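It is time I had a proper look at our fold encoding. Can you supply me with one protein entry, sequence and fold together? It will help me judge whether the discrete encoding reads sensibly. Leave the record below and I will have a look:
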Amino acid sequence: MVFQYHIKEIILSFLLIFMLFVNIVLVFDKIIFVPRTKPPYLCSQIQTI
């Protein structure tokens, strides 16, 4: 029982951290808004991979 409780706690905390991270990424995306859909450095990185 105790072990399951810890697993639930870890999963909940991970979800919270993930949601915070997504919110931060979205906010930065709005702040650093590039009018072009694909910036050149991203295209070059995709081609190298």
In short: The chain has two helices and no strands.
